[in-house]
Amino acid sequence: MTAPARLWFGTTSHVREKPFRRSFRHRIAMLDLDIDRLAEADRLSPLFSVGKGNAVSFREMDIGARSPSVPLRVWAGDRFAEAGICLDGGMIRLITFPRVFGYGFAPISIWHGHGRDGDLRGVIYEVHNTFGETHSYVTAYGGGDVHERAKKAFHVSPFFDVNGEYRFTLQHAHDRIELTVENISVDGRHHAASLSVRPTAVTTGAILKWLVTMPISGLGVMIAIHWQALRLLLKGARYRDKPEQRPVRVTLTQPEETATRAADELRKRA
Fold first, then answer.
1. Is the pLDDT of residue 269 over 60?
2. What is the residue range of 165's domain?
3. Fewest 10 Å CB contacts: which of 77, 116, 166, 269?
4. CA distances in angstroms from 129 to 107, 148, 254, listed in the order given
């Protein structure tokens, strides 16, 4: 049986390609949880807690429905069901950004839905913006690397309109996860964000090392977002006001080849 929780360490990088090129990269730390074994995870280290403050912590209200009346499994199960993905009661694991010394922000969280046989059947990319809003993109998993597309439906950055589409590329293995999300419009790729992380056990030693090498990692995600936004403004990027969030909060992705054929057909009819 896999551990009720793991830590994942690695890097994230962002590349803006239009109207000018800009890139940055920084280290990240994430938390991986079996959402049905949170009580076990809570006992792994005196420096880690579920549902209460600690050096590193996880709170169910930060994710999913963000409501005490909707358990994480119910929320995630409903999202998978909307995409026609049947887990049959299998394990659901969540990889997200935890709170560090009480503060945290998760720009993206990745839910992995498994069948009873242990095989990965679906993925939810839960995206948050700095305005407290959230949107989920749901993907069926058929094995190997995942290449999916979806219409962009959520305001994330004030430097991009809510149009075009996303291309998700996920490489999933027991000892590594690599995800790239590309923002693509009719005139090509505008932006690409990626993360590459590898797991380690939740131990007091691992947490202490984390806190020494990345002492403000919880707050650091938000600092990095606003610092890069300031640099984009100084470089001349056009600021867009935040539109009202669309009522539909879930988007189902399509395999890249299916989405590409559909886009080609629309262009032919135009």
1. no
2. 5-269
3. 269
4. 6, 21, 23
